[in-house]
Fold:
Amino acid sequence: MTWTLSGRVKKGALLGVLALTVFTGAKGLSRSTSSTLTPPIGSFVSVNGKRVHYHLTGPEDAPAVVLIHGASGNLRDFTFSLAPELSKDFRVLVFDRPGLGYSETLHSDGESPQEQARHLADATMKIGVQNPVIVGHSYGASVAMAWALERPDQAAGLVSLGGVLNPWPGGLGAWYDVTGSWLGGITIVPLIATFATKAMAGRSVSSIFEPDPVPDGYLAYVGSDLTLRSQVLRTNARQVGGLRPYISEMSEQYDRLELPIEAIHGTEDTIVPLAIHAQPLSERLTNVNLTVLDGVGHMPHHADPGAAIAAINRASHRAGLRDQGQTR
Structure:
């Protein structure tokens, strides 16, 4: 989730606001729903007539993990490094969220985290993955929380990586109002999709990772041609711009969550601040185990992948899916 959920957005990271992953770019980017620059790397399943793009790896008999990416991103954020490591010990299912990457949008109004959770849970069942630990980064953590609330029988545990977990003070600013509107969608958004440059993309992704470095090869791997499509930009703006009331509604129900929850959060995360999200949740719920990463920003699964993997292992152990410390 690439905004400051304390009420202010960094002016120098406006493109970052529109992308968890604004990556290698070029002028004249396609506005279509597919790309020859960054093709699909997984498979497709149809859920209620809508195409869902997913990537599945790991032993079939291993405990399952579902990975859900953040705002305006795609599943490649996880398949870059985390999913390959997890697949040594887990059955790892990674999704493009509705309307992002190669997954079809559900409607044009900005899918709620509850709608996305139900849709991805249905996809998970159709793919044949059962009783997974649900892992969400940033916006994806709000979908993971919705999943646990909406389908508690289909979630063994939950892991939040720099996750949006609570309502925040203030608003997100005019950016989302404009880009999420009908007028902005046909004027401002196409200009961004057409004229965003590689330098802009580099600055944006650096601001998302701050103060941590961007991993070598990350920009080229994830692909801005997926992110900087008009339809994706509009979908993201509407999802993000409409999130707060859904988070407020969900937060009132957190006390009924009984599954094990692990939260990883960096002290230097100024996009989704620790003091607003993971810390209050850990103080409220006894089933939340919070790991605070000193000096780490908004991308903890890249800055400290070992901590993320350890949290997923703990959630799996706490859920009774495997013995503590067990590996294949």
Remarks:
- The CA atoms of residues 182 and 234 lie 9 Å apart.
- The chain has a mean pLDDT of 84.
